Backbone:
């Protein structure tokens, strides 16, 4: 949807309108600020925590400094960076769970500040409701969205099927493996039909084999749904396997220092020389950030 001033500009300058239409037709995403095809725009984002240390003392922790980023509709973006550089903080702000200290975040042109059902979140630590069954966990957000009740069963069945959870609908989270719990968490997030999927190291606690399986499941699901995804990871291979684009953050205070496009066809072969080359580049960028934070 365009706002009134965009409509006015387009009416006054037909050339702009033609250029935008051509870009859309070519599916070419403009990386500059406030581009029309950006789903998410982050502009000058800052976050400083004020930590109360008692006895009237407080400490300022500059977690994020001047982060600028645009993500196109349907793009899969991975964020990597040294531990403590503000990745989770950035995601929490986008989820509306932390207030920002400065800057703007726009999703579909609308400022984000509160939590909302237009964003789905998946965390590392299986944030499922332990007192609800698999089915009830997936239904939770659907009910919040006030979707008519006669649609509920169809929606839940769809995501149970997509995440291969058939037969476990009435099981409680403590009876599921870690990988299955993450499948439920992804199903629950997708059942909201979110505009943006925010994932914070969702596979970080899983063994290598389960992790590999779930990475493939996520790629399959993303290819079916084409959701816009922001995915945080420490694992450069995971980032190379999943992402259209990998954003590299500096040590704290976190800023974006590099972005690498992964123009490899899916399914990706982790042994292909082009794959290994990107993985190596990312590893060396992370290493240089770690070195600079140790100096
Ligand atoms: N609620 C909070 N109160 C105060 N400081 C915080 C809070 N949350 C995070 N921080 C600080 O902000 C900085 C960034 O933390 P954050 O958790 O975002 O890093 P991260 O990049 O996600 O790290 P990791 O890769 O280890 O998960 C750290 O210095 C952390 O101590
Ligand atoms: Mg984190």
Residues:
């Amino acid at each position: 949807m365009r706002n009134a001033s965009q409509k006015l500009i387009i009416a006054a300058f037909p050339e702009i309108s033609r250029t935008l239409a051509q870009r859309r037709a070519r599916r070419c995403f403009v990386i500059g600020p406030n581009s029309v095809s950006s789903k998410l725009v982050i502009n000058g984002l800052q976050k400083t925590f004020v930590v109360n240390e008692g006895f009237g003392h407080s400490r300022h922790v500059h977690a994020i400094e001047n982060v600028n980023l645009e993500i196109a509709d349907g793009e899969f973006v991975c964020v990597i960076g040294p531990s403590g550089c503000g990745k989770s903080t950035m995601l929490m702000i986008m989820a509306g769970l932390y207030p920002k200290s400065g800057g703007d975040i726009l999703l579909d042109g609308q400022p984000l500040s509160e939590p909302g059902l237009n964003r789905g979140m998946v965390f590392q630590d299986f944030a499922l409701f332990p007192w609800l069954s698999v089915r009830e966990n997936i239904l939770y957000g659907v009910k919040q969205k006030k979707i008519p009740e006669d649609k509920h069963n169809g929606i839940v069945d769809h995501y149970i099927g997509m995440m291969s959870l058939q037969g476990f609908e009435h099981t409680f989270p403590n009876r599921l493996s870690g990988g299955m719990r993450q499948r439920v968490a992804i199903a629950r997030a997708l059942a909201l039909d979110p505009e943006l999927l925010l994932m914070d190291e969702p596979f970080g606690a899983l063994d290598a084999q389960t992790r590999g399986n779930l990475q493939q499941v996520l790629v399959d699901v993303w290819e079916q749904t084409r959701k816009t995804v922001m995915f945080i990871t420490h694992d450069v291979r995971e980032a190379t396997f999943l992402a259209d684009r990998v954003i590299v953050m500096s040590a704290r205070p976190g800023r974006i220092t590099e972005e690498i496009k992964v123009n490899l066809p899916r399914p990706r072969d982790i042994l292909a020389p082009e794959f290994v080359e990107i993985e190596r580049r990312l590893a060396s960028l992370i290493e240089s950030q770690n070195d600079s934070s140790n100096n």
User: Anything to note?
Assistant: Residues 87-88, 200 surround magnesium ion (ligand 2) (CB under 6 Å). The longest helix spans residues 273-294.
